[in-house]
Every structure is written in C-alpha cells, then in structure tokens.
C-alpha cells in the first residue's frame, strides 16, 4: 500500500492562492474544450460492467483533510480493504495545506480516483478544468441504494451540489447535526438580578433584558461595566443571525420571496434589523468589542458570558456546553468561576410578525468526486459505491464501527450503557490519535444512527432546545451555488459586512442601506440573482426527477 502525505512547507507556503489557480488556469482546458468535455465525457457503459470480487483494485483517495502526520492503515481503512479486496492509497493533507496542495496536484495531472471537495464551488472548478468525471445516478442506485435513499431522505440538497450541466458529478456527504438550530445562552442569574422572572421570548422582551443588563448593574459590583450582548463579524454566517431570523431573513444568503430568489441582505427586513442593531449600539446595549469577538470558534463570546461582561451570547446552546459531567463545559467552568452564576439555553426571539429562526447550513455537507482513473478502471468507482453502501446500509453495529472503530478497543458505551452514549477509549480519546489510527478514509453520518449513538440526555436536550423547525436555510443550499459567485461573491460579501458594521456603529445612517442595495445589484448582484433563479429551477427539476418531496435537512 502506498501512502502519500503532503506537507506545506517552505516556499510553498508563500505561494499565493492566486498564483496556484493561475497555474491551474494555465494548464486547464480552454472554455470551448471544457464545454465540449462536459457535454461529451468519455463513454462508459457503467450498468453493463460486472464486478469481479476476486480482483484486487487499487484506489487512490484524498479524504477530508485532517492532520499533516496522518497515517495509512487506520482501522477503518483496513476494514474496508479486507472486506472489499481493495488497496486504498490515501493522500492525506492537513486542513491549511489542502486548498494549496490540491490545485498543484491537479495542475500537474496527479488527480486521485476519489477526492473530497469541500464546497459546491470546488466541484464546479474541478468540472470546468476537466479534472473529474460524472457519476451516473443510476449507477449509485444500483450499487448503493441505501446510500442513495439516505441522501435523498435527509440531505437532498446534496444532489444539487453535485449537479452540473444536467449530470451528477459527485457523492454527497451528510452532516447529521446540520438540521439542528443553535440558540444563544442567557445568564439566568442576571435575569433574576434585574427583575426578569420569565425567560425572554419576543424580540421586545430580548431588548428589555439587554437594556437592563447594560444599565441595572446585574453583577452588583456598583460599576457600569456590563452589556446586554455581543456578537461577531468573524463569520458572515454568525452575524446577529437570530435577530435577522426574527424577521425571517438571512442577510448573506439567497431567500425565496413570492416564488423568486432574492439576496436576503438587500431586503427591507434586513434594513429593519440593522436599524434595531444601530439603536442598540447607540444606547450602549451592545458590547462595543462585538466587531472583533468570536475568535476561536466563539471562544471570546463564551469567555465574556462567563467573566460577566455580557448577559447573553449567541449560538452556544449545545449539549456539550451544558454537560455537567464535563469539566470543560460552559456550565462547569462558570460554576468554578462563580458558584452563584447560572447559564441556561435561550429561546430564539420571536419577531413582530411571529417569525423566529436561525441560519443553518443544512445536512448536505461536502461532496466526493471521481477523477479520470475511474473511467480507465471502472471497478474503482463500483467498489467505492459498495464501500459507501456497506457503511450506511447494514445496521447500527456496522455504522458504529465505521464511525468509531472497534468496540472495546477504540470505544464503548459510557458505563456500558447504550443510553449514556458513545465514549472513546484511551489513547483514542485524544482527537489526533483517533483521526490518525481509527477513522476510515470515508464516512458519512446517518441521522438516525447518529441520534441513537447520543446519550439519552443529549437527545433530550436537543428535543427541548433545538427544534429543527427553527432552522432557516439558503433557498439553493449555499450562496456560492451560482456560477458568477466566483467572480463577485467574496468581494460583495466583504463589502456588505463592512457596510453593515458601519451602519450598526452609526458611522453610516440607516438611509445609506438603500444606496447599498442598489449598488450591490450593479456590482454583480443582479447577474448572480438571475443565475440563482435558474439554480432554484434546476433544484426543483432534480428533486422531481428523483422523487424527492422534502427540502434540505430539517425542512421536512
């Protein structure tokens, strides 16, 4: 077995992404040749090919990027190799190196048989440059019927992510928790200290609580050193999401209005939310450091809640933060800092028209694509589909082995009780060891089995505080689904975040929003909107052709 582990060192680090893609563009097909290659791919009569299980098949595989010192021969890989008579040659990249090394490999013609693509835009680039080959839906149905049904039932948007020019080009992956919203967290002891007995539920009640946190000395130290809330500009998808959700809008996504697609960030509802946030900022309710908060995956939001600077923080109401058995959880650390402090999950605020919700990515996660090698040797793809089918279509025990390794060696049920969920065993408790020595090159979560592997307490927490009905999804799955997004989206998004920030801070009047909305359309937004309308129609066509009636995970 061959193991190719690529590290990003020395001068390669200095090579910009622009230079890498310029090199790739230089070697890529011309626009005309690319269109011809897409319209007339190499002919393979897939359904006439019969597998020979006795024949050893080599498959080069670039999985989800994990650690730079990944090891070949992980438990999950070996299980698949023995069961399906394959020799998997893993190409193991670390997360920072993946976006640099992958284009270099592809430009040099070193394209693995199976490749992880993180976003739909990556799939589109690989198609345009002639690097990957279609994967017929009928072939998936033949060799992986349970896998096909799993995606169609729980993450149908994945088929849109893999679609191009009327063909399927990929194998979608599920993120089970993508169908769950993540509300914020209150300091309940602060609510009680300022005379609020009922947990805030409406937007007006949220605002009143924030105002009292800022001005009524909730920590009782006699100082004017507290604020109602903080947020972040670190991630566009996190920015005041629950307050935009109270108006039924996603400011950085495509939303549907009366059968048409519009950009949520230029709607009248977005303007109303910005006016509200501007007022909160002017009144001193909003922590002035909100612009830089959110570093380290909400680490600073959590710290400010625990350290008594704010009484509410967004997006932390997950079971791990309320698990009293974990010394690192929010409630455990908070109790250690202040035994009288109490944190509780918040409800998502209800807006003036009765709406509530928070942005969610959905269950359709990433996509695996197939390089030219599967055309030269079709059994590479057929065996791959059989492996995928095996992991999701053979019951709970096989699924758990695929996800966690061997019971008793790599994991077990906590206290031997399935109702207490999965716990990893030493030395595989440490994430690096687990990902190096246990995980397979391919896994996709199965929402039903995933839920069953949770502790009963976690399932109960999710049922009580994370209602899937409160998820708000992009109407076409991802913002970058439109072709011209690669030309406009990144710049427009950065500009929008800057404009929103300046409006909230009061440096721009709220009336500037109308000018911004007009200019957004002129700077490429109108072109993207027209394309987004076409993508929505294509989504409807795909769903109809596959017999899919439900929307992206959670919208069922």
Outline the fold blueprint.
Elements: E1 4-6, H1 11-14, H2 17-27, H3 31-39, E2 57-62, H4 75-84, E3 86-93, H5 98-107, E4 114-117, H6 120-128, H7 137-143, H8 145-154, H9 157-161, E5 163-164, E6 167-168, E7 171-174, E8 185-187, H10 188-193, H11 203-215, E9 227-229, H12 241-245, E10 254-257, E11 260-263, H13 268-283, H14 295-307, E12 310-313, H15 330-337, E13 343-345, E14 358-359, E15 364-370, H16 373-376, H17 379-392, H18 395-404, E16 411-413, E17 422-424, H19 431-437, H20 447-453, H21 456-465, E18 471-472, H22 485-505, H23 512-546
Parallel strand pairs: 1-3, 2-3, 2-4, 9-12, 14-18
Antiparallel strand pairs: 4-15, 5-6, 7-15, 8-12, 8-13, 10-11, 16-17
Helix pairs in contact: 2-5, 7-8, 13-22, 22-23
- Class derived from helix and strand content: alpha/beta
**Residue-averaged pLDDT, rounded?**
89
Main beta sheet, described?
6 strands, mixed
Radius of gyration: 25 Å
CATH class of the largest domain: Alpha Beta
CATH-derived architecture of the largest domain: 3-Layer(aba) Sandwich
Overall number of domains: 2
CATH fold call of the largest domain: D-Maltodextrin-Binding Protein, domain 2
Kindly state the percentage of residues in helix: 40-55%
So how many helices?
23
Q: Biggest sheet: strands side by side, in what order?
A: 1-3-2-4-15-7
The rough form would be described as: globular
Distance between the termini: 44 Å
CATH H-level name of the largest domain... which superfamily?
Periplasmic binding protein-like II
Low-confidence stretches: 1-28
Q: Total number of β-strand segments?
A: 18
Beta fraction of the residues? 5-15%
Q: In terms of quaternary structure, what is this? A: single chain
């Amino acid at each position: 077995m061959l193991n190719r582990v690529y590290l990003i060192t020395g001068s390669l680090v200095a090579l910009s992404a622009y230079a890498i893609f310029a090199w790739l563009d230089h070697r890529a097909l011309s626009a005309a040749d690319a269109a011809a290659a897409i319209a007339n791919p190499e002919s393979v009569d897939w359904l006439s090919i019969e597998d020979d299980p006795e024949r050893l098949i080599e498959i080069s595989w670039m999985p989800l990027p994990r650690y730079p010192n990944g090891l070949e021969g992980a438990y999950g890989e070996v299980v698949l190799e023995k069961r399906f008579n394959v020799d998997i040659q893993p190409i193991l990249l670390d997360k920072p190196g993946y976006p640099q090394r992958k284009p270099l490999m592809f430009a040099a013609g070193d394209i693995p048989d199976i490749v992880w693509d993180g976003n739909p835009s990556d799939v589109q680039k690989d198609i345009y440059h002639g690097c990957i080959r279609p994967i017929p839906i009928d072939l998936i149905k033949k060799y992986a019927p349970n896998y096909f049904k799993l995606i169609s039932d729980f993450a149908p948007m994945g088929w849109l992510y893999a679609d191009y020019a009327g063909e399927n080009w990929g194998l979608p992956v599920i993120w089970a928790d993508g169908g769950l919203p993540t509300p914020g967290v209150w300091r309940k002891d602060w609510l009680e200290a300022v005379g609020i007995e009922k947990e805030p539920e409406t937007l007006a009640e949220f605002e009143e609580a924030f105002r009292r946190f800022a001005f009524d000395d909730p920590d009782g130290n006699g100082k004017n050193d507290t604020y109602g809330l903080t947020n972040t500009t670190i991630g566009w998808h996190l920015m005041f999401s629950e307050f935009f959700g109270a108006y039924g809008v996603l400011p950085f996504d495509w939303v549907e209005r009366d059968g048409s697609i519009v950009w949520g960030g230029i709607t009248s509802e977005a303007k109303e939310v910005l006016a509200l946030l501007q007022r909160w900022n002017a009144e001193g309710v909003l922590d002035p450091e909100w612009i830089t908060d959110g570093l380290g995956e909400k680490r600073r939001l959590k710290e400010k809640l625990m350290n008594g600077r704010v009484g509410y923080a967004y997006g932390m109401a997950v079971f791990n933060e309320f698990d009293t058995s974990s010394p690192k959880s929010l409630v455990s650390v908070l109790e250690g800092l202040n035994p009288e402090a109490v944190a509780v999950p918040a409800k998502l605020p209800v807006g003036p028209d009765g709406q509530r919700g928070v942005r969610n990515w959905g269950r359709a996660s990433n996509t695996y694509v197939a390089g030219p090698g599967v055309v030269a040797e079709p059994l590479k793809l057929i065996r791959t589909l059989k492996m995928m089918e095996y992991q999701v279509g053979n019951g709970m025990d096989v699924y758990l082995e695929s996800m966690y390794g061997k019971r008793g060696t790599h994991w077990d049920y906590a206290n031997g009780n399935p109702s207490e969920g999965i716990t990893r065993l030493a030395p595989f408790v440490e994430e690096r060891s687990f990902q190096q020595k246990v995980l397979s090159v391919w896994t996709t979560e199965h929402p039903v089995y995933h839920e069953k592997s949770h502790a009963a307490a976690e399932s109960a927490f999710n049922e009580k505080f994370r209602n899937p009905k409160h998820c708000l999804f992009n109407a076409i799955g991802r913002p970058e689904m439109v072709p011209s997004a690669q030309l406009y989206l990144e710049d427009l998004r950065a500009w929008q975040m800057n404009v929103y920030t300046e409006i909230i801070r009061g440096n721009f009047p709220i009336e500037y929003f109308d000018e911004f909305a007009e200019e957004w359309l002129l700077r490429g937004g109108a072109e993207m909107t027209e394309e987004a309308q076409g993508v929505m129609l294509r989504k409807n066509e795909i769903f109809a052709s596959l017999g899919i009636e439900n929307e992206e995970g959670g919208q069922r």
